[in-house]
Amino acid sequence: MTHSSIIISKSVFRNCFSRFFKFAIIFIILLLVNTGCNKRKPETPTPDIQINEQYWIRVLLLNNIQQCSIQIESHFSIKEENRVQNSKSKKDYKPLKEPVIVQIIDGQINIAKQNYPSNQIIISPKDPYIFSLNGKSYRGKVRLIAKSDANSFDVINLVPLESYIAGVAGAEMPDYWEPEALKCQAIAARTYCLFIKKRFGENRTWDLNKTAAHQVYLGMEAESPAVWQAVNETHGIVLTCRQPDGTEDIFPTYYSSACGGHTEDSENVFGDSYESLKGVPCTYCKDVAKEEIFFWPDVQFEKDEVYSRLMNRYPNLNRLGEVKEISVDKQSDFGEFSRITRVKISGPNNISEFLRAEDFRLVIDPTGKKIKSAVCTLEESETEYIFTNGRGWGHGVGICQCGVQGMARQGKSTEEILSHYYPDSKYYEIDYNK
């Protein structure tokens, strides 16, 4: 082989390698574009779409709004419901390939520039029973309710229970956590949902809010194969316990992020008393929770700001005239730490009012991201209230989510974990065919 042929061969090799490298880069870019950096959303048809309506959940997605967008990539129908005339009408429509605007015009719901005189509208997508609201995907149906002011409306997701649970479990707990932990979350979320629906749903047009006021619901954004596996493996399972009247029934299966070492009696936090909502020791969350959550830093609030927020939230405090002192009235002692359960708010002339500590902290810090829990010490300076020695995040009743993950890592089963945090609770499986 001559010197020139060697040069040509090297040149050919370099050109081939350069082309291959370019093609490889293009392939990787296309792969990333197609799959995205986020986990892929399951696009399978919505399960249990034919179940009895008593097991559909009405989730308040948006309230008192003037406008939103909706997109439905399947055929769908719109049913008008007029509460005044007690009449209904239904029409079928072709897919909405692009988002359209929903708004109130002249006191009526307007979709894609078409007015609907009824004060309630139900939009029902066909298979796979999915719609997009403001760019986020949800399963089931959507109900629009015009408000009495004729200037705003509510948006409510009507969704089968199991699909709702998938949208909660993946929002309330990381989907890469242990399978047993995810199953605990699914069962707790399912039980809590049905309890709130049963207790409050009859008196309003929706069952649960999509926010942490009840439990966080993100629709299909929260779904993943791991989440659906946990939901499917616990399909229809809820928890029951002995009620105050002696009967056996579901109960509000509260849960929070990290208890800080011991959960709390529900009666001390929410005022309700259930056999399975008694505080229990938790040695598991410390190794799971982040350091800044398990031991959170001191927080200071100006006294004037604290007094102002309390007075605005609780007008009955105005009878004090002014706030002279805030002190701890009751607390649960757990050895090396304690959880404040009630505070005393004192005015002049020995007049006082009392607040649950959980309400107190959330009035001062509505986000709950500074005063992360009532496991802390309340101190004061001349101008400030100081929250020190803080531990954990959340109200501390029922499941400690970080503790659940800690127990699952140790090989504990779903039943063992739930029995620890909800003592004396029992499994009950819903029969969706009834």
Structure, explained:
The protein has a 7-stranded mixed β-sheet with strand order 4-3-8-11-12-1-13. The longest helix has 33 residues, at 3-35. Helix content is 28%, strand content 31%. A hairpin with a 5-residue loop joins strand 14 and strand 15. By secondary structure, the chain is α+β, with helices and mostly antiparallel strands. The protein has 3 domains: 56-159, no CATH class; 163-289 and 396-429, no CATH class; 291-391, no CATH class.
User: Uncertain spans, ≥5 residues at pLDDT below 50?
Assistant: 1-13, 23-40
How would you classify the quaternary structure?
A: single chain
- How large is the radius of gyration? 27 Å
Coarse shape: globular
How does the helix and strand content classify structurally? alpha+beta
Biggest sheet overview: 7 strands, mixed
The averaged pLDDT comes out at 89
Keywords summarizing the entry:
434 residues, alpha+beta, 3 domains, 7-stranded mixed sheet, 6-stranded antiparallel sheet, 10 helices, 26 strands, 28% helix, globular, disordered N terminus
